[in-house]
Amino acid sequence: MRFLLTEEQRAFARSLDALLAAADTPSLVRSWSAGDTTAGRALWSRIAEAGVFALAVPEEFEGVGPLPVELGVAFVELGRHAVPGPLVETVLAAALLSGRPEPAGRLLPQLASGKALATVGAPYALDADTADLVLALRDGQVWRAPGARNIRPSLDPARRLATPLPGGELLSPVIPPEAVLWARLATAAQALGVGLALLDRTVAHVGQRVQFGVPTGSFQAVKHRLADARTALEFARPLLFGAALSMTPADVAAAKVAACEAAYATARTALQLHGAIGYTAEYDLSLWLTKARALRTAWGGPAECRAVVLGAPR
Amino acid sequence: MDLTHSPADEAFRAEARAWLASHVPAAPLPSLETEEGFAAHRTWEAELAADRWSVVSWPAEYGGRDAGLMRWLIFEEEYYAARAPGRVSQNGIHLLAPTLFDHGTEEQRSRVLPPMARGEVVWAQAWSEPEAGSDLASLRSRAVRTDGGWCLSGQKTWSSRAAFADRAFGLFRSEPEAPRHQGLIYLMFDLRAPGVTVRPIHRLDGKPAFAELFLDEVFVPDEDVIGEPGEGWRIAMSTAGNERGLTLRSPGRYLAAADRLVELWRERGCPVRVQDRVADAVIGARAYQLFTYAGASRFLQGEPLGPESSMNKVFWSEYDIALHETALDLLGEEGELADTDWAEGYVFSLAGPLYAGANEIQRDIIAERLLGLPKGRR
Ligand SMILES: Cc1cc2nc3c(=O)[nH]c(=O)nc-3n(C[C@H](O)[C@H](O)[C@H](O)COP(=O)(O)OP(=O)(O)OC[C@H]3O[C@@H](n4cnc5c(N)ncnc54)[C@H](O)[C@@H]3O)c2cc1C
Fold first, then answer.
1. Which of B157, B354, B362, B366 to mutate to test the pocket of ligand 1 (most atoms within 8 A of CB)?
2. For the segment B44-99, what is each residue's pLDDT rounded down to a tens digit?
3. b/e map of B169-183 (b: 16 or more CB within 10 Å)?
4. Do A257 and B3 touch (CB under 8 A)?
5. Using omega within 30 degrees of 0 as the cis cutoff, is the peptide bond preceding A66 cis?
C-alpha cells in the first residue's frame, strides 16, 4: 500500500505541463473555436508524441497501454491547459475497438500516433467536423459513420456538437460495457484539471485585485470560498486515482461525480470572485469556465453516475 | 500507486475482525454522554485493553501493538464495520498521548499512558474558556508558581465528558506579562483535586456531554507539567494537528456510516428523491478514505501532515452532518425520535464544525497557508 504517484508518473505530468505551457493554449483554443484547427492539430501531434493516446491503446496495436493511472495523470494536465478537441472521445474510440483485432489493427495505430482524431456520437459527436474517425453507438453496436451533420455550438465555444450520419461500416457488433469507463475516467481527470486551473487563476487574481484599499483575497468571504474549492478538488483527486487502479463502474462513477462537481463549483466561485472581467469572452478565464459546465454532463451526468455508485436502476 | 495491503496487514485485519466479532457487545451500550453509559464504555475500554486492542498504534510497553499508521487505519475500519462502541477515551488517546510521545518525559509516559489505555483514567481536554474560544490564545486562567509545583485558578468550559472523566490536560497563563502566545504552561491536573468544581453542561439533547470547570487554587506538582513552562502554546499546537488531521476521525467511521445509510435507503424501498444524497454519502466516505491513505503514504515517507489537516477537518465535519440529515429525512416522521442511533449521531454531528477548531478558522488556514492568500483582519 503506497497510494502516491510514482516519481515517473509525476515526471510525466511535469513534462506534459511544460509542453502545454509552451504551446500558448489560450490563443490556440480561440482559433480552434473559430474553426481554424491548424495549431490545435499540431499540438495534438505533440501530445501524441508524448505518448498520451498510446496509454489507451494495447501494445499489440502499437500502444503502451492500457494504463489508466497514467491516463489520469495526462488528462489532468490536458484539462489544466484547456486543450481543445475530442481528447476523451479518442480514448473512448480506442477502448471501443481494442477487443477486435479487425478493425483495431487498422485504426488504433493511427489513434496512438496522433495521426487520426476520433470522435464518438452518443448522441452528439464532439468536433465531428475535424475528426478523422466518427464513431456512432447505435442499437448496441459500434459503427463508423460516413460523417456528421447538423453542427451545433456547445456552451463551451471550443466544442462543436454534431449528429453522426446513418449508415457506414459496422466496426463491432457489441459496445464493450467497460469502454465507457475510459471515457468517464478521462473526463473526470480533465475536469479536475479544469478545476485546478480555475482555482489557480482565481487565487492569483484576488491576490492582486485591490478594492477598499486591500487585495480582495484578504477578505474572509473570498478566502472561504476558495478554501472550499480547494478542499473539494483535493478530495476528488484520490477518487480519480483510486478509480484508475480499480476501474470498477462504481469507483469510476464516483470519481466522475466528485471531480465534475468540484470543478463546476470552482467555476462558479471563480466567476464570482473575478467580478465582471470574469464574465467576458475575451478574458482567458472563460476558456475553463465554460468547459467545467460541458464536462459535467459529458459521458454520464451527475444523476446517472450517482445511480451507478449505488448500483441502482435508472 | 497501490491500494493493496500486504499479506501481513491483511492478517492483522483478519485478527482484529475475529476478535471484534466475538467481543463487540450484542446490544449497543447506553450513550457515553450519560453516567451509566460512561461506566459501560469504561468497561468496554478495559476489555479492549486486555487483549491490547485499545491503542494498537502505541508501543507495546504502554499497552499497544506497535502496529503503525496503516494498521491503525485498518483496525479502525474493522472497528466501525463491527459496530463497536464509541471511544470514551478518545481525547486522551488522540490529543494527550501524542503530546506525551513528543514532549513528555519517560516518567510521564510510563505513569500516564498504561492506565489511559485501560480506560482506568479517562482524560478531558481543558483548553477553551468562556472568553477564549476560537481566539484560544486569549485564555486567562492562571498557573502561579508554588512550592514543588503550580497553583491553578480560573475557569475552563466546554470540556467534553469532563462531568465523568478523571483528569484533564490544559493550557494556563504562567507569565502574565508575556505576549499572548508565550508565557503559557501545558499541564495535567486531577478533576477531583481540592479546589476543582465540575459543573455539567447539557447539550442540545439534554445529555451532560460537556462541563465547566471552576478552579480555585488547585495544586499541580511539577511532574505534571508537559515540556517547559512558557512553551505551552508551541507544545499544544504541535499536536493539535492530530485532532483535525488523521487521528480524531478515521475513515472507518464514515465508511461504516455510509454502509448503514445505504442499508436504510434499501430498507425504505430505494426512494429516488434522496438517491443522489445517499450516493454522495458513499462517494464522500470513499473520498475521505482515499484522501487519508494518500496523506498517510506521504506521512510514512517523512512528510509532515501540515495544513492539509484543516481540509480534513472541514470535510469530515460537513460530511457527517449531510449524512445524518439524509438518514433523518429517510426516516421521515420517525426521524424525530431521539432514542435512535441516527438521532444521537445527528446531534453529535451538529457540533463538528464548531469543535476541534471552528471551520471558519480552518478555512482561514487553508486560504492563507495552502493557497497563500494575504492575511486579513481576524
Ligand atoms: C461538542 C463540543 C465539544 C467540545 N469539547 C471541547 C473540549 O473537550 N475541550 C475544549 O477545550 N473545548 C471543547 N469545545 C469547545 C470548542 O473548541 C469551541 O467551541 C471552539 O473553539 C469555538 O469557540 P466558541 O464556541 O467560543 O465560539 P466562538 O469563538 O465565539 O465562535 C463563534 C462563531 O464565530 C466564528 N468566528 C470566531 N472567530 C472568527 C474569525 N476570526 N473569523 C470568522 N469566524 C469566526 C466561529 O467560527 C464560530 O462560527 C467543544 C465544543 C463543542 C461544541
1. B354
2. 999 999 999 999 999 999 999 999 999 999 999 999 999 999 999 999 999 999 99
3. bbbbbbeeeeeeebb
4. no
5. yes
